[in-house]
Amino acid sequence: MELKIPPPVTSGSLTFKVNRREPELVSPAKPTPRELKLLSDIDDQEGLRFHIPSIFFYRHNPNAYFDPVAVIRRALAETLVYYYPLAGRLKEGLNRKLAVDCTGEGVLFIEADADVTLAEFEDKDVLRPPFPCFEELLFDLEGSSEVLNAPLILIQVTRLKCGGFIFAIRLNHVMADGGGLSLFIKTIGEFARGCHAPTITPTWERHLLSARVPPRVTQTHREYDEEAETPTEDVDTLVSKSFFFGGAEMSAIRNLLPPNIATNSTSLETLTAFLWRHRSAALRPDPNKEMRFMLIVNKRHRLKNPTLPPGYYGNAFAFPVAIATARDLTEKPLEFALRLVKEAKASVTEEYMRSLADLMVMKGRPMFWTDGAYLVSDVRNLADIDLGVWGKPVYGGIGKAGVVGFPGCSFFVSAEDRNGERGILVPVCLPEEAMQRFVEELEGVFNGQSVVSDIGGNKINRKLVMSCL
Asked: Does Transferase show up as a keyword for this record (predicted)?
């Protein structure tokens, strides 16, 4: 195959080349059924009709005498025998209903080499989103990111000079959520280690999350409020940064709360409420504007009637919304935002999920409301994915902040800082000036200052006792 040599990728003083071979289609290693399989009514909503990228960095294993590209390519073909719908193509039917045509055509696969070492990423502190080379490490082939009639997965495996490698994957989100993606990649790892079958057999069973007959919306789903059309306006340049929250940072945030509330709140709840509040202040919206927060609430293991099989890899979550005016959110204490977050999280019952599926059918699979919205998804489970003899990744998680057409989305990634402390890494995307204010907001909290800003940039006194960074 012809070797493609693009221009160097540069981030500050980190410059390197990525040489890619021609993309190929990897199909299942054995014949698979040709059939049309309907997606669930949770899967095919408008807000999931995009491709979501993830990336994993693996160290060199001196005891591994295998080419990671060859091993992963073979393991992928064997995995697709069991996950054969992922080798098909999506079709759209009546009422925008999606189904996968199990053609067995395969998924896109790119073999590449980069003249850089993993140590260089670590030395330059760029082993976190936004990655300096992301577009080269997961190359966007023309037409490959379409929702219909396009490959459902794109994988690029890039060898590094040190013997390590990068595994990058982009998945059509209607086919699987983070838990489903984790099952799929872990199965690739099992075949890479020489297994002959998956530990957890994948199951389709998408009817388990399809609408009832007749459909009936019994819950309030304000995340799908009908959004008024607004004139298109020029927006500031968007900037992405990642923020690390270790023990000291989480202690500082909890110190903003009454002790009884801090003790009875999870790290996820506490951090999301904090980010929602300070991100909103940095944006400086109109004081009366509704600011929305949505948290991905996964029900994969909590549905009872019926339960989902262990190998279910479809989307099994909702993103309930918390709503507050910008004034209330930024001027009231943090426990106000935290209470709203916890109430939204608790609202996702089994009936909520059934009602959500029914709403999709009755309202034509709408998009969630994005104006003034901030969405958070916890993907820390991706950090433990073992791809065979190379062990767990140095970094494993989402490739960047935001999703297609919606920058107001952050993902919680499990990561280590330079001192080896494990914490939560959160990529954030904001307009340039808002990002500057957001950084100042966080520095004010973590440096022990007794003030935070409201939406007008005014300082509000707070009695704080906080740890330093």
From this structure: yes
Q: What percent of the chain has pLDDT over 90?
A: 78
Amino acid 7: pLDDT: 40
Please name each of the domains of the chain with its CATH number: 3-205 (3.30.559.10), 234-380+402-461 (3.30.559.10)
Average pLDDT of span 291-317: 94
Which pLDDT band, with edges at 50, 70 and 90, does 228 fall under?
Answer: low
Q: Which residues are catalytic?
A: 173, 386
pTM above 0.70, yes or no: yes
| Cβ contacts of 311 within 8 Å, gap of 6 or more | 183, 198, 200, 201, 202, 203
pLDDT of residue 357: 97
